[in-house]
Amino acid sequence: MKSRIRFLKDLDPISLKDPILIQGLPGVGNVGKLGVSHMIQELKAIYFAELFSYTFPYHVLVNNDGILRLLRNEFWFSQLSKSGGKHDVIFITGDYQSQTPEGQFTIVNMILDLAEKYKVSQIYTLGGYATGSVSKYPRVFGTATSLSLIKQLKDEEIEINESGGPIVGASGLLIGLGKMRGIEGACLLGETSGFMADALSAKVVLEKLIKLVEIELDLGPLAIKAQNLTKLIDQMKQKQRHRPGTRRQESEEEKDDLSYIG
Amino acid sequence: MKSRIRFLKDLDPISLKDPILIQGLPGVGNVGKLGVSHMIQELKAIYFAELFSYTFPYHVLVNNDGILRLLRNEFWFSQLSKSGGKHDVIFITGDYQSQTPEGQFTIVNMILDLAEKYKVSQIYTLGGYATGSVSKYPRVFGTATSLSLIKQLKDEEIEINESGGPIVGASGLLIGLGKMRGIEGACLLGETSGFMADALSAKVVLEKLIKLVEIELDLGPLAIKAQNLTKLIDQMKQKQRHRPGTRRQESEEEKDDLSYIG
Amino acid sequence: MKSRIRFLKDLDPISLKDPILIQGLPGVGNVGKLGVSHMIQELKAIYFAELFSYTFPYHVLVNNDGILRLLRNEFWFSQLSKSGGKHDVIFITGDYQSQTPEGQFTIVNMILDLAEKYKVSQIYTLGGYATGSVSKYPRVFGTATSLSLIKQLKDEEIEINESGGPIVGASGLLIGLGKMRGIEGACLLGETSGFMADALSAKVVLEKLIKLVEIELDLGPLAIKAQNLTKLIDQMKQKQRHRPGTRRQESEEEKDDLSYIG
Amino acid sequence: MKSRIRFLKDLDPISLKDPILIQGLPGVGNVGKLGVSHMIQELKAIYFAELFSYTFPYHVLVNNDGILRLLRNEFWFSQLSKSGGKHDVIFITGDYQSQTPEGQFTIVNMILDLAEKYKVSQIYTLGGYATGSVSKYPRVFGTATSLSLIKQLKDEEIEINESGGPIVGASGLLIGLGKMRGIEGACLLGETSGFMADALSAKVVLEKLIKLVEIELDLGPLAIKAQNLTKLIDQMKQKQRHRPGTRRQESEEEKDDLSYIG
Lengths: 262, 262, 262, 262
Fold this sequence. Notes:
Chain A is an alpha/beta fold and 262 residues long. Chain A has helices spanning 31-42, 101-117, 147-155, 170-180, 199-213, 220-242, 247-257; strands at 3-7, 20-23, 46-53, 59-62, 68-70, 73-78, 89-94, 122-130, 140-144, 159-160, 166-168, 184-192. The first copy, chain A, is 37% helix and 24% strand. In chain A, strand 4 (59-62) and strand 5 (68-70) form a beta hairpin. Chain A is globular. The two termini of chain A are 33 Å apart.
């Protein structure tokens, strides 16, 4: 067995009401992971299962308390229906997404097995769309596996991804393979520079998502992170303007300053 | 299961009359895919099965309507015998061919399982042969797995590939492994620069193929594509001639202009 | 079967008293392998099993007598309890550690199967932590899979690895996967330049280890190796100081001199 | 099944008298393949089986008659006992040796299955040892998996490989894994520049081999090839000496001239 899901809580499938699945894994601008992690925290989701895989790299992580642990993907749930929500939600995030086709296909299929077990009706995946430049008003692009979902995306003024271009990684595969099992899905991609973990992009993606799936969510903490990031970028830009030096030097400094902010 | 074929139509094997298989996948100059796609369109072939594989890369595509789909290879059929043709034909094309030995061997064997199921008697694979320079009169090279087919290729003035050199990818493997199962095959390679999707090369390959397998086919639309491509190349060359600049600059521009035209 | 363990002695599991497992494989500064090899020699451990694997590279080694042998990992045991020790010990070292995720996970799981068979209660893995510069007083960093072990590490003044950074290779995976089977473990990493097989780093790691696991061990031979290495480095540095030449030349010489000393 | 052996002749295992196996595959200086191919030709060996593998690259070859075929390893036999020889011989050569650990281990084990079936008592593998410079009197190095064979190698003045260094590829693995099955073996490596297919190195290896295994073999044709190669190298060297030009230019030309001669 190359990958396995370990259940930490014996979550009875019938205990979830019309659940949907929302996935955000590390990727471009870390948009997906930032977004889903924020939802997990704000909605007080409960950690109930974790996935380990031979297809992750052969290293381990050390927690703040010095405890070593394996790389993993994480499964959390929130029974939003209990407080009047339309759907219960299963969230997926994690340390890593596999960088091999076999790993991606295997893990995505294990996630879909779990989705079927809990009778998930829809899957939403979040990610980033790298443009190479910082935008103060990042757009949200979308694609889906059904025309009815495409229509809903358009109703929320999400720009439909009509380029025919490829979407790389788990956020595309999960809904592509999900459709083969009769589960419809949509993928929302936030515009991002690709140079940093982009809280602003995560925020605009969540703004669209929560309307689509009718979830109430406080975006305040993410907005603050996004503002701090914007300030940081503005400060870096001002410093550059006031530094003496040849144009050549400035462009080199800019390159340094705009390196990845994790 | 790393790869699987999904049938969209329940095509009864006995409903095909003496079928042959014609394959053209993405590759050098996209000659094979262009050729087979043209046949599928002109012969009003019917889409009946699709192959998905873990050995394809882990990305997905988005259609013009915004609908996301998995990478796939496609199976189409044409009952040409109903309008007096000698053979019914199964066509194979797709988004991608695997870039690993295991992927190639696995998929080719699944295609051969399908070929055996439908009692395919011959396999023709189409591809490109890169020369690095644009030719107005591209040649067609051939190889086969039986001396009788070699003779037929020579009769059609196809140049026999006697170099002993390797043929890379599915167009070689499919007929090589096909022979192990008692299905004879030929591989036709159109001369191409390798710098662009080459409709002219696809056209000359099809001219030879349709004589070999006695299929009537309108090559007009492909000829127009080829003419447009030729005009485009001529225009680019003229522009270069009239541009001022040092020789060094010209050669750099030429390099840019001759980059891949998809 | 991609990997297998061959038993050279029929070591009855019940013959070992409360065994612990200590692993040191080739890696950064070769710290782990040097340390465990020293323990094997000083404690007169007995060679009882060896592991071969498809996931090792496809080369073989030649012994001093001209005899060719496969790459392998080695299993040794020492019945320290017979001379009053608290634990019997199983040692693991070898020629190589796999450089693929699948190889690492497979082999680590086979080692854990063996550990379970012999009812191993704790696993200690040794390795190096590369800093890029030579230290005369290398530190020892530690991580573990239980808070009680973390406490013991702190009691021995081992610096707890709280960075959250990754630990690459078998020394992390073995205790990470071991915990999944209910075997607690710790990983000790000796500070090392990373430029040479570092006997001094191995010595300081063993100094900490033998207190943790209450083993008596003569570190004299390793101390001599470490002194010789230190002298060699000092000599190299002095030579550089007394050599005439521009600064540029000196820095190039230094680079040569500090290349890996195996 | 990732690899398979196809039998072309139903060679009864009991029909071979005390067979030994001699393998030479493509590799350094092509020494092994040149040597074994020469033996196959001179000893009129019979082609009886071929091995195909998913672990070979995904290309095919075209014969001189235009017929396409898969990459393969080849099995030939010679009943030398019928003309008074001490052993019958199974030869292995081929187009390719796998460049992945899994491919190498899998194929070598399939060859050993065949060796066991035919009750092979000894395995000899031939290869090249690259030194980077052309020698007129190339040496032969040897290693083996038993001390009795090491003694025989020494008796034939083969230099025993005592460096402890690795031997890469099938010539090492076959005898290393063979020993695990109780079949002893030796590996003979001819000194070679590594820049060309080296008939002289193949000749000196065969001179040693045929004494070890008591086979009569005409080395004349190989000697002629070796002389032609030596003449060619001498001519190239003389040309260089007589060419005008700066030292820098000469060294560049030499580099060109000494590129691989296949």
